[in-house]
Amino acid sequence: MKKLRVAIQMDPPGKLSKRFDSTLYLARAAARRGYELFHYEPRHLRVETDGGKRRITAQGHALKFKSAAQDSVYHGAAQTQDLSGSDVVLMRQDPPFDLAYFAATHILELLPVKVRVINDPKGVRDAPEKLIALHAPQLLPPTLVTRDVAAIEKFRARHGEIIFKPLFGFAGHGIFRFGPDDGNLHALLEQMAALNGEPWMIQKFLPAIAHTGDKRIILLDGEPAGCFTRMPARKDGRGNMRVGAKPSRAPLTRRDREICEVLAPILKSRGLYLAGIDVIGDYLTEVNVTSPTGLVVADRLAGRTGKATIAERFWEGVLAE
Q1: What tens digit of pLDDT does each residue of 194-248 get?
Q2: H helix or E strand, kind and range, residue 296
Q3: Which residues are catalytic?
Q4: How far is 229 from 191, CA to CA, in rounded Å?
Q5: How far apart are CA 260 and CA 258, in angstroms?
Q6: What is the pTM of this model?
Q7: What are phi and psi of 109, to 5 degrees?
């Protein structure tokens, strides 16, 4: 088995869930394989030119595990590493997709071609998570992307209940549900308009979420590797575990496979090797490519262990290419 040098651009390990974090899960699988792990925060990424040469470095720490348990993670003394010496760089910091994230994609894109960045930085930059889904409109519920309040009102009049989503939000932040006569819509739009100049995503509310949940499907190189559903909490309609949605085992349906087949060439052509898509009923609602999560939950609910886990299959796929 080839020994890889892996750098992980991530949030501080101490802030991550030791039981459920997907980045630590991938790192733990790499450590079991004997890979050399280094982690750094995006703010410690550097690019410097001198004498016509360019160096991309990061200040961070070796990432190690004291035992077989994922919660035994620790790091060593601070060091500066030249990322051009890495075999793989995982871009795994949490969204939001902001200018800092945007800048990091440009810097990582400067690495030598021999260094594989997952997901491809240009692919991530060109695929904001809610917008990339628009490349497959046949999979989506009725959807509108705009800042035009009159257009949003017409959309609500046509479809009744609607969902409001910030275009660059994540983990359920800023998602609202409005009924056909809810008088709070204009107040929210006014508030959001004051924050930034971005358009918003409006979708028809899908009642199926109440009985089928919000399904997360993990894709590796466009192929489904695991899935589970998240049932919203009784007093919160969002299908996000951060706000109390309960995960449960769920099979891949024929419709799920159709959705994956349509998305596979779109993702593969952009170098988006690891993705997490969200499906409610028969509809795709989002495509997550910046830092897809749910790997631990999907494996635990399915009872996958050893080489059958998504993390092991992830690294096998990396080695195969």
Answers
A1: 887 889 999 999 999 988 899 999 999 999 999 999 987 665 555 455 545 688 9
A2: helix 295-302
A3: 130, 165, 216, 230, 238, 278, 286, 288
A4: 32
A5: 5
A6: 0.90
A7: -65, -20
